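Good morning N.,

You mentioned wanting to compare the apo and holo forms, so I went ahead and generated the holo version with flavin mononucleotide. This is what I fed in:
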Amino acid sequence: MDSREPPSLTFASVLEQLWSQLADGQRLRHSAFHQAVLATSSPRGPSARYVVLRQVDRERGVLGFHTDRRSEKWAELERDPRVALCFYGQNIQLRAEGRAVLHHDDAVADLAWKRTGLMSRRCYLAEAAPGTAAPMPTSGLPAHLSKDRPNEAESAGGRVNFAVVTVPLQRMEWLHLAFEGHRRARFSRVGFGPWRGEWLVP
Ligand SMILES: Cc1cc2nc3c(=O)[nH]c(=O)nc-3n(C[C@H](O)[C@H](O)[C@H](O)COP(=O)(O)O)c2cc1C
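and this is what came out, ligand included:
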């Protein structure tokens, strides 16, 4: 290959940058990494949709998001937990893969629910399951909630529908788009072991 890498680009520096972007994604609503496309396998074939990045555990290499356990994606994950997540922002694409771990009736979901604000809890108060056919355009929420957040007591009714999906990552692929030539690296690991990097031709 004819182009030399600047000495600053190492597997460690790429990982550092990735986890810092993910940490920002979790904290900052306007960060490009605040949401990701989540791909699952459905009986029809691949299925993709956005989710909000809610948990980032750099030490363990785990990402997490919240969902309604009545949703199609939940049933898909019960059948096949293999997922791919795709992020893009600041000229960086991150493709991440792992096996989803489903949390509904456990301490992980309890804690996440406790930390979930009333406005976000409102999503879990829809009477019918997400994806249910409706005779007209609808939010699915009880009418009085269309302009207001629920109070604490009322929001508690959403807990039964609330779930957390965590994804211990097994593989990450970083693609940096740049005028002087793109750069691409893959990181993989066994279980929770150390990340092993490889440079790839973009
Ligand atoms: C920016 C954005 C963020 C979203 N975040 C979530 C999320 O965190 N969890 C979720 O279940 N759905 C989220 N949704 C809605 C999903 O993309 C999807 O429409 C819904 O969950 C139904 O998907 P399913 O039928 O595959 O289960 C989000 C949609 C958008 C556009």
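Strands lie at 35-42, 45-52, 55-57, 62-68, 82-89, 92-99, 101-103, 162-176, 183-188, 196-200.

Happy to go through it together on a call whenever suits you.

Best,
F.
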